[in-house]
Structure formats: C-alpha cells, structure tokens
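Hi R.,

As promised on Friday, here is the backbone we talked about, encoded as structure tokens. Could you run it through your design pipeline when you get a chance and send me back a sequence?
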C-alpha cells in the first residue's frame, strides 16, 4: 500500500521523522497488556438451541447496552438490554429463541460517558454500510455443493500464479459482456464475451491459466456508500470497517445481510470449480476511523499503538496503526483469517503493510491457517508506510522474513530493477535499456536467496540475502499500486522509435523475467491485454473510466495475450522454475559470464526440481540492439525468441553463437 490511500487521509511527515521511541514494546510498561483477554469462539454472537447469546469483550467498560433492531438502519431500537459483566473482560446477555432477521449494536459506558453504538468487532453479517450487525443463519447462505467445495491443492506457494484484481476493474466496463458488473457474482458468469467475441470474466482467467486470483479488499470497508449504488463509486477498499463481513457494494443487495455472504461464497465456489484459488487482501494494520472505529468503541485505546504523548502512532500513513503485539489484537487477526478460511474457503491471504504486525503474530497466522488447510499460503508487504513504536527487529519486514519460514514478502528489488523506480515515472530499468540493474535483476532471479554468483553488495534496494528459501518471495513488476506496467512503459519509453509495439516487447520481457524467476509470480489484472490506467499513478478512488478494463483490448492485443498464456503454461509445466530451497537454486541455477550491460544469461541445470528438461537456457536482452551470446552445442528446442514464446517449442537450434533480438528473451531447452 502506498501513502495517501484515502481522499481524507494525509501522510504526516512527523511520524516518519520523529523516530518514535519504544513506548510499550514489552508488556511490563504497557497498561493495556494488564487487561484480561478472551479468546473463546463465542465472541459477540452465538445462535444455537439455547437461544441467541451475546458476549462482548469490553474490559474497561463500566456498563454495556445491547440494542436490537428490526432493520439495518434508520429505525428505532425495539429492545435495549443491559449486559452483565462476565469473565475475562467480557459482558454477556442471552435472549430466548433464534433471532434470525434481527439487527443489533453495542454501546459501552466509558469514563462516565456512553460511546456511540457499534456493531462490535466480530460482526459476521451487517446491514447497509455496516452500521448494525445482523443475525442470520449462515448455513442457509451456502451454495449447493459447498460442503464438498475445495480450492486447488498446492504443495508450495511458488506453484501458484497469482492474478491481482479489483472486482470493479474486472467486470464493470460495458465490453465485459458481464451482467453483474462490479459484483462478486461477476466471477460466477460463464460464457461472457467481449464485443469481438473473445472470452472475458472467469473464462478469461481459465484461458490465461492463472492458479489464484488475489481480490483487493472484499471485507466491509467505508469509502463506498452502499445506500447510493446508483451513483458509480470506486475505491480500492483499504479503509476497513467490519473485518469479518463482506463488502456490501460488491453484492446485489447491501441492505440484505445474507446476500453479500451468499454471493461471495458463490464467487469462491465458481472459481474453485474452475480450478482457481482465492486470495484475500487483508488490512488489519489500520482502521478507517480512529476514535469512532469499532475497536475504539468497544475497548478504547487497546487495539492501537500510541506515541508517548498519547496520540495515535501512524505507521500506516492512514491515521493509526493497530497493535498486533497485544494479545487480544493478535488473537483477533488469527481468528479472523481462520474464519475466512473456514466459512468462505479462502485459499490465501495477502497482508497489507505487514511490517506493522510483529513476526510472532505472522508466524502464528501461517501456522494456524496450515491447520485449517495445508494449501493456504500467506504473503505481504514487508514494509510500513511510516515509523512505528514496534521495534524494528520485531516487525514483519522484508529483511526479517528469514524469521518467518511460511510467510512470503513482495520483492521490490525485482520490481524496480526490471522496469525502473516505482515512484519516478520516467526512470527506466533493465528491460528499458538502463544499465546498472543487472545484479538486482539477478537477486530477483534467485528468489532473493544467497547465491554464490550474485553480488548482493550491488543490490539497488537490499544488499544482503533476505529470503532463506525462494518460497519466501513474491516476484512482480506491477500491482494495483503505482503506475501499472503499460503506463510505466509509456511514461519512461518516450524515444522517437518507442511506440506501443516496442513497449509491448518490453512488457513481455519484464514478465518473462518475473515468470521464469525463482519465487512466486504475481501480476496485475489486464496487463495480459496491455490495458492501461490512463497514466494515473494512484487510482485508489479514480473513476471507472481510469480503472475499468476495456476488454476490446483483448482482440487488439491478441499476440500479447497469447504470449502471457504461453509464459504461464511454461512455468506451470516446468518445476525447474519453482525450486523450493536456496540450496537447490545455488546448485542448479548457474549464471553465464556475460559482461555487457542489460544482458543476463543463465542455465537451470540437472533436471532441476525433477524437470523433464535437463537444461534450460534463459537469456534476457534489455537493450534496444541485437546481442550475440555463446550457447553450448547441443540439441536445443527454442522456447522463446524475438518476442514470441511457445511452451512446446518454436523450432530448434544446435547452439553456438546465437543472436538475441532487442528487448526480448531467448529461452532454450534440451532433454539431454
Ligand atoms: Ca462497506
């Protein structure tokens, strides 16, 4: 996530500059850590044969009221109940019967003052805009066949090919041919076509061959008014309100609490039926509101970190940061992701600004999720957006990922080295002819592990190996943040001869580096058809006219789509690109001694990782001129050449002196 996600959020330079001292690093000095915690599975709402039971964790409350309603908003309470103080900082109330269809809120008496009503922090169903929690029968929300529903089985995270998407980007454009535009249900529609008759929607994902979609925030967030959906609204959704309920604007009826639950499950089921897993983007690091967040209205102060002067610390650059180092918050994160995995069958989690969380929390997250389903994987942004009171050595940073064996981090190394710096639009990278990035691209190729032929001291961003194994790194050249690849290439490749056809070659080369590198490949939706975002750097609240994918581009850029499809097929068919340990990479991945700038050549040897190919030769030429390389004599199949790629082969060569076309990859393979 970048600074300034919200129209109202302002990055305070002070937070970065202050170098906030560690006010409460350890429980001894932290008054909040003296409070009792509660980790039972019955928090807030349980409906069973005994009735409808409520249990709110509000350890500092002087009194708690529960209010019942007939609707999700704008109606008076039908009942107000005083809750009873119970064990471990909780307050309880039990009502007879199963109150399905009713809504409820809590409010607490804090220092003699009644705070505003809140649906609590564990609302699993909510009315429009998430103001009131709803009591629904979850069993009735399950699509047919849900009990047997499973995501794809995965041995290792780097067997995944991740496609990041926003619901609205993917389906809202008229050219999508999709009925449920911008909705969860968009991904359940088979047979949708672009005006030119090419597959869109879920059929497009199947054709492309990705294994997982990573959906941008799909929990209930704040910035889109769910009561006014007739007016087009757009937001990425990094402004969480209710962490355990789906976002209403992606449902066909936000006012009906069961609809969003049921429709999100239908989406997951449809993707699973297509063999595609679902990764959720989760944003536990901050909340949309401060004093009026659901956290603050139930346990004021507890869930957040503060500066010594009592103000909110702000490592998220969005106004606050949560405190995963406190037990109730740590348990909350763990229980929340487990809930999504169990109730919605989610297959992976991407943690926004993960370094705001501590490494211990992230390790427990990964461990607990593996118990639910061993195929689930976890990755995140190994950085913060500002300073934090959490000591650096405890942060789930990229540089600390060696302490988190089952967690992966995004590689900003490969990202910036391949295409140029993310924040400097005109800066070029390896594929656009800028010399000096070769060693950092190699850092990406070896999955950020230690390798005898990589000189880490020449790394642009990191200067020592941070991943113990390549399974701990996510390789990418663009995502929802910053200029997407097409726009980045248009803003940096501005020479007279640099038209879109040259830029498409650069995009192919960039993604070829990503998809052949050790680690897990990740791409942003629409890059396969060379879509753009009109040059907008931070499109978090830009209109559909900027963010929506125009599916007519699929016909216009059919060659680009075919290249991506073949590239993904190549990776999936060949385990040599998916080694799981640093030792294997060091043994089987051998760089050739080439000295020219913007040229890298290496081999994957020894039938690496059980590959049918004995040796794969991978050569990248990021210069705008032809290069010559020496390849050992042998019976080589040409896999990629001059901007074309076919996983089954384009032809053959005997090796020797070979030319590598400008801005392209040459990939060769031999079986003996
Ligand atoms: Ca919402």
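Update: got your reply. Pasting your designed sequence below so it's all in one thread:
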């Amino acid at each position: 996530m970048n600074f300034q996600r919200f129209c109202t959020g302002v990055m305070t330079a002070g937070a970065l500059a202050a170098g906030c001292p560690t006010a409460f690093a350890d429980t001894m000095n932290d008054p909040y850590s003296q409070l009792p915690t509660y980790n039972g599975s019955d928090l807030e709402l349980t409906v069973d044969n005994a009735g409808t039971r409520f249990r709110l964790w509000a350890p500092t409350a002087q009194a708690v009221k529960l209010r019942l309603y007939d609707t999700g908003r704008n109606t008076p309470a039908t009942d107000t109940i005083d809750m009873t103080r119970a064990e471990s900082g909780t307050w309880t109330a039990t009502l007879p019967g199963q109150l399905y269809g009713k809504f409820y809120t809590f409010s607490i008496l804090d220092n003699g003052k009644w705070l505003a009503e809140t649906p609590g922090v564990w609302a699993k169903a909510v009315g429009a805009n998430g103001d009131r929690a709803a009591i629904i029968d979850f069993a009735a929300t399950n699509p047919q066949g849900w009990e047997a529903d499973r995501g794809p089985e995965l041995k290792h995270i780097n067997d995944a090919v991740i496609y990041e998407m926003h619901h609205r980007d993917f389906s809202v454009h008229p050219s999508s041919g999709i009925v449920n535009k911008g909705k969860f249900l968009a991904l359940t529609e088979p047979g949708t076509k672009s005006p030119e008759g090419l597959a869109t929607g879920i059929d497009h994902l199947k054709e492309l061959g990705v294994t997982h979609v990573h959906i941008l925030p799909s929990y209930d967030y704040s910035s889109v008014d769910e009561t006014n959906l007739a007016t087009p609204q757009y937001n990425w959704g990094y402004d969480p309100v209710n962490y355990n309920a789906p976002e209403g604007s992606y449902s066909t009826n936000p006012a009906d609490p069961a609809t969003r639950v049921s429709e999100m499950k239908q989406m997951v089921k449809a993707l699973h039926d297509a063999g595609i897993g679902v990764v959720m983007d989760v944003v536990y690091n901050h909340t949309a509101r401060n004093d009026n967040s659901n956290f603050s209205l139930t346990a004021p102060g507890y869930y957040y970190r503060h500066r010594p002067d009592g103000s909110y610390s702000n490592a998220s650059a969005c106004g606050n940061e949560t405190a995963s180092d406190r037990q109730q918050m740590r348990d909350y994160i763990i229980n929340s992701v487990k809930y999504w995995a169990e109730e919605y069958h989610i297959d992976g989690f991407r943690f926004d600004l993960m370094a705001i969380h501590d490494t211990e929390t992230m390790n427990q997250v990964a461990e607990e999720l593996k118990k639910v389903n061993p195929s689930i994987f976890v990755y995140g942004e190994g950085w913060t957006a500002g300073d934090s009171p959490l000591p650096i050595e405890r942060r789930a940073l990229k540089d600390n990922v060696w302490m988190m064996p089952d967690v992966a981090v995004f590689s900003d190394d490969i990202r910036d080295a391949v295409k140029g710096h993310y924040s400097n639009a005109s800066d070029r990278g390896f594929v656009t002819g800028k010399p000096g990035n070769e060693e950092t691209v190699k850092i990406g190729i070896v999955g950020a592990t230690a390798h005898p032929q990589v000189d880490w001291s020449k790394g642009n961003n990191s200067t020592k190996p941070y991943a113990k194994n390549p399974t701990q790194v996510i390789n990418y050249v663009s995502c929802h943040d910053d200029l997407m690849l097409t726009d980045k290439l248009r803003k940096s490749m501005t020479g007279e001869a640099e038209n879109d056809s040259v830029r498409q070659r650069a995009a192919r080369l960039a993604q070829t580096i990503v998809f052949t590198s050790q680690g897990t490949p990740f791409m942003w939706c629409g890059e396969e058809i060379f879509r753009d975002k009109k040059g907008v750097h931070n499109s978090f609240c830009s209109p559909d006219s900027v963010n929506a994918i125009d599916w007519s581009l699929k016909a216009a850029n059919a060659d680009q789509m075919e290249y991506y499809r073949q590239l993904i097929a190549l990776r999936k068919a060949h385990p040599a690109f998916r080694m799981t340990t640093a030792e294997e990479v060091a043994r089987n991945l051998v760089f050739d001694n080439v000295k020219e700038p913007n040229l890298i050549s290496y081999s994957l040897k020894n039938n690496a990782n059980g590959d049918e190919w004995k040796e794969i030769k991978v050569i990248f030429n990021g210069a705008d001129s032809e290069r010559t390389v020496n390849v050992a004599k042998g019976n080589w199949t040409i896999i990629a050449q001059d901007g074309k790629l076919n996983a089954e082969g384009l032809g053959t060569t005997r090796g020797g002196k070979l030319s590598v076309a400008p801005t392209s990859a040459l990939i060769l393979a031999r079986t003996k």
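One thing I noticed while checking it: Confidence is low (pLDDT under 50) at residues 2-25.

Thanks again,
M.
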